[in-house]
Amino acid sequence: MQIAEIQIVNYRTEFKADIIKLNLEWLDKFGLTENYDYEFLNQPEKYVLNGGGMIFCAICDGRVFGTCAAVLTDPKKVELAKLAVSPPARGFGIGRKLSEKVIEFAVQKGVEKVFLISNTKLVAALKLYESLGFKNMAIPEFVCLETANVYMELEISDKKF
Fold this sequence. Notes:
By secondary structure, this protein is of the alpha+beta class. Helices cover 33% and strands 29% of the residues. The protein contains five helices and seven strands. The chain has helices at 16-29, 35-42, 44-49, 94-109, 123-131; strands at 7-10, 54-60, 63-74, 77-85, 113-118, 135-137, 150-155. A seven-stranded mixed sheet has the order 1-2-3-4-5-7-6. Helix 1 packs antiparallel against helix 2.
């Protein structure tokens, strides 16, 4: 696989099983799976698409190698959620491309902030987010995930597109 062969495309229902598999792989590996994850992944229309958000997929040779959701939580905020890259596809910049696609989506929607909820066990992901300009913040009260111990925000005005 070469990075030039990877395309970032919008969600299609035929990608759903791959998206679930990719996300549960890393959630289970790090012991972070919660009931909410199953609900979110099994109902993308309810949790992402019907609210004006989008799920992006990294595709190569017809296979899903990565995914990330842009959840429009209110008119001023987008959540970068469920970033996952298949282990053999890591190191090709797929996570960065997917994250940048979510940020571009947020810019197009005219929101002020992109935020994410994470965990300190996800060292590589946190380094990626910091390199994109996300800043650590206090965890807001609305965060109800038991395993969440990181909250980061990116002010859209900080990004130049």
